[in-house]
């Protein structure tokens, strides 16, 4: 008999079916045995009052949770059962017996393990339905990101991760031995995605980025997945913000429509993206904070996490929005390729998108003229030589352009309100962890 | 006026439109000036007999190829023009003037530059329509790969590229400084994709892989994009081969239907994938070579490039197929996680897919029992300790599983019959090159 996924069992009431997967749970209540089988997509319950049906799983057989098996049975509607159906009149075939006790139980609703245990045993812990749902949503976010951009004439690119020089500065970059010479891991695809605007005009990339930041916080890992966008012929950063809004809306719509089971399992309620996300200029944001909270942060070159939370509250109260664009960050705090605001000296054509008072996306308009780059590098105190290939592209015609980046794990952490970025990362790399 | 893409100009005959892009070509024939504008998707020709229309592009203005501009004009059907339309009654707006001579011309049908020049100036050379078409097809191949697998219940994953130990052996791996300790760049997502079979059953990944192989050939680069697949509950390698066939067919169908312009520009004729690709066992392939060519390669543990070409010819003559599966490669030449053929000692449940006599895909069934892994590592002479996390997953129940990998650039090189893998690589990394 052909196996069917557990998620399709309810379509076969009155028929015998075969499912395959892992022995998720096995318990006896009086003379009744409940078996839960988990496959790649869901779980299904099976019930037997006849011990001979389950000889393969009897105590004497010594098999435990995560044993890989096939289960055949009659599909019966049963209101009490999870999903409204269960299997009866069972026949079991064991593929891979497991006798060892798991490093952490996978069949409790909540994961009963400390974070270190969870991470040490991630190869098994990620099988837990609540963990798995997070990473299924990661796949959904990538799909929604791509679908939104493919629909607008963007081309997907894959740019090199081994690079000859650091993207933004020489610090916080991993160095490697490239056939006896030093090379580095790309901190972002920034330069390459800009270069590719010259080829395709509109590009995006989904790929790993590497940050050698030696801090150990709940909000940082050293390798993560970056969803990067860059495109040409923008008027200014507001063109970029409009696209960023649509991309976030597209991701959320993909999750809402295609990943309902995962969202329900995680009890996640996704936010609504306003048709136009409210925006506030950096300088006015500082004025607002003084006005509302009596704290004078004017003159500070950046917003603190507290500032961001206050602004998030304001967006919620004033605009009923979980989202807020802060625009015009001071040039001193933005990377050298940032386009200045032509009307407001010292400020830039850049933005952050705050989600519930926490930064979710950073982006802006970039410089596009060769001379501007030479001046910006000199201003930043960087030598031009390591940037030679990057600079070449600006000698041969680049349109006004801009873009943004979304950290995939950061997005999931915030949407799902996870307490640690590591919980949104399949196999996190941090200051102390490079396995599993 | 809103700009439209050049690819949509022919839908606006009789209307004035605005296009934006790069000055691809500018030439005078008598009193007539021909302007070709290239945007992110195509090119359009414009014609003027009135010099005052093109003052911005006059010789005195000193602007050259790749100047970024907007061009407005009336769309006129013109059988002589490329695409059957051209713009007249022109108005030009320059965004970014370019006065410098390009390092290589972008507006010749063929690229007139040596390979080193092309690669040194890839940031500009990739703008050439023929180069761009290759990388647009790369995007199409990724899209076709994902679409085929998403339609079959596969989940996309992104696994870490910084790893604690080498995947297959200690050689050919790039070492990096991870906060003062050694770490490595992943040679493949092999271990992680197998681990994730325990989570999602069916997974795929599109991402960079890193090979520190110190050879300088036309068929190798040191960083490339790998399209990886792994899935559970296979009967044996034939289940994997059936999926590999469908994935290749899905990729080709996506290219055929969505990328006709690129294929036409490159004069590429895509192959037909037979409903069932012919297959031959490794040992029989060696017998066949003896029979047909009088060369006795029996006992050799692998096929030579010449052997593969002969087999490709045979598949063409005997089966009319550009594709051939060779199955059952000797265990000694396959990685330690390869599943042996239970019926034929010394041979494995593995395969290569040859395309026109060259290897395109490698795959097979993997071991899935913990004890088998311990034995295989001992047999291979590897210590078990560096593989601890990987091995853990097999202690807790893995189904029979298998998978395969396709090198994206290799696929393009072979489909497009390119003479060098670097020509299918956006910004190649090799023994001597880590820029641009």
Mean pLDDT of chain A: 96
- How much of the polypeptide of chain A forms β-strand, as a percent range? 25-35%
CATH architecture of the largest domain in chain A: 2-Layer Sandwich
Superfamily at the CATH H level of the largest domain in chain A?
Bira Bifunctional Protein, Domain 2
Uncertain spans of chain A: none
Order of helices and strands of chain A: EEEEEHHHEEEEHEEHHEHHEEEHHEH
Radius of gyration of chain A, rounded? 26 Å
Task: Look at the structure and give the CATH class of the largest domain in chain A.
Answer: Alpha Beta
Briefly note the CATH topology name of the largest domain in chain A.
BirA Bifunctional Protein, domain 2
Give the overall shape of chain A, derived from the CA principal axes: elongated
Provide a count of the helices of chain A. Answer: 11
Q: Can you give a write-up of this model?
A:
Two copies of one chain form a homodimer. Helix content of chain A is 29%, strand content 25%. Chain A has 436 residues and is an alpha+beta fold. Chain A folds into two domains: 6-96, Nucleic acid-binding proteins (OB fold (Dihydrolipoamide Acetyltransferase, E2P)), CATH 2.40.50; 129-424, BirA Bifunctional Protein, domain 2, CATH 3.30.930. An eight-stranded mixed beta sheet of chain A has the order 6-10-11-16-15-14-13-12, with helices on both faces. In chain A, strands 1-2-3-5-4 form a five-stranded mixed β-barrel. Chain A has a three-stranded antiparallel beta sheet with strand order 7-9-8, with no helix packed on it. In chain A, strand 14 (350-355) and strand 15 form a beta hairpin. In chain A, helix 3 (129-150) packs across helix 5 and helix 3 (129-150) packs across helix 11 (408-416). Chain A is elongated. At the A-B interface, strand 1, helix 3, strand 6, strand 7 and strand 8 of A face strand 1, helix 3, strand 6, strand 7 and strand 8 of B.
